[in-house]
């Protein structure tokens, strides 16, 4: 890939909790996409050997001493990116659902200097093939509408978690990132902080092993928590980040 | 009028609350910061139990006509809600600090092992 020049130093941030079966493959796929990317796996106190496997595949592993949840884990990665002066960060799930070969598309708007945050959306293109279960599809739609309304820009997918950030985005999320079920609220925070958002259609895979951490009871908590967080976030003031950059 | 027995029980109970809280502070098992609301609870209940006319007057203001001690329960409930709410804010702060600590440990550990690897390779 030729992108890495204008994107500067690139880091991939991967949260993982008990993903020993797939984490090695996830790391390898990113490496195959671009060998110069530094890959950081944040092991959220897994009970299996996720950390060791990630390390043996050449990833930098950040080991959380106890489980802090997906948002807290991802934020650790952004803090790492900030401290180590990376210019660009991408975030992928540790379960292999985010396809590393889609990274090129995700990075393109950053490379052109058009965006600070690029979300890999499953629904930009209505003909997309990803079909989550009905209840989830409704949830995804409702949150997309709500964030669009409160953030003043049409957002098609707020739950994907597949994203790319420039330096300003890294700074924002290192400082401010929700600790559990973070994606939806983080999107709104980014919009309200003045980040330029781009969305690109990406393919997303079905889960290969294990099961989603989001069960029925948790999904009720998910909806309640995220809705409350969105409403409150829209009442808060966020410092507008400078949008004339580089 | 409040039955005398209720007043006595109220005085004893709230005095006991105050004494227990003070003893906990003395033994360093309770921080002053978290004791203040409990002491305020005890003090208010003590005053309302001992000063029977005041309780009656307040009951009158609130439109509690039949049974003035109901005001005691109401005030006690209100203070317990305040204490619980206070604890929820404390808990939230601790949670945030806890996550922050965990994150720093993870970041520091990685830096330390990287530094150790680097110094090992230069030594060899
Ligand atoms: N850090 C952290 N990551 C988690 C936790 N639970 C799940 N994950 C990760 O979050 C990502 C998405 O989780 P998943 O259960 O697949 O959610 P879904 O894709 O929305 O169904 C994966 O990379 C998981 O490894 C957790 O407790 N902590
Ligand atoms: Mg998943």
Please, could you describe this protein's structure?
The complex is a heterodimer of chains A (246) and B (124). With 246 residues, chain A is of the alpha/beta class. Chain A has one domain (8-238): Spore Coat Polysaccharide Biosynthesis Protein SpsA, Chain A (Alpha-Beta Complex), CATH 3.90.550.10. Chain A is built from nine helices and seven strands, in the order αβαβαβαβαβαβααβα. In chain A, strands 3-2-1-4-6-5-7 form a seven-stranded mixed β-sheet, sandwiched between helices. The longest helix of chain A is centred in the last third of the chain and has 20 residues, at 216-235. With 124 residues, chain B is mainly α. Chain B has one domain (4-123). Helix content of chain B is 87%, strand content 0%. Chain B is built from four helices and no strands. Chain B has helices at residues 4-26, 32-50, 52-62, 69-123. In chain B, α1 (4-26) packs antiparallel against α2 (32-50), α2 (32-50) packs antiparallel against α4 and α3 crosses α4 (69-123). The longest helix of chain B has 55 residues, at 69-123. Chain B is elongated. The model of chain B has no long low-confidence stretch (mean pLDDT 94). Chain A binds chain B through residues 42, 60-66, 68-69, 72, 75-76, 79-80, 83, 179, and chain B through 95-96, 98-99, 102-103, 105-107, 109-110. The complex binds guanosine-5'-diphosphate (GDP) and magnesium ion.
* Bound heterogens, unique: guanosine-5'-diphosphate, magnesium ion
Assembly state: heterodimer
Summarize the helix and strand pattern of chain A as letters.
HEHEHEHEHEHEHHEH
Mean of residue pLDDT values of chain B: 94
Would you count the extended β strands of chain A for me? 7
Q: At the fourth CATH level, what is the homologous superfamily of chain A?
A: Spore Coat Polysaccharide Biosynthesis Protein SpsA, Chain A
Greatest interface by residues involved? A-B, 17 and 11 residues
Low-confidence stretches of chain A: 1-5
Order of helices and strands of chain B: HHHH
Q: Quickly count the domains of chain B.
A: 1
Query: Helical proportion of chain A?
Result: 40-55%
Mean pLDDT of chain A: 91
Termini separation of chain A (Å)? 22 Å
User: Uncertain regions of chain B: pLDDT < 50 for 5+ in a row?
Assistant: none
Helix content of chain B: over 70%
CATH architecture of chain A: Alpha-Beta Complex
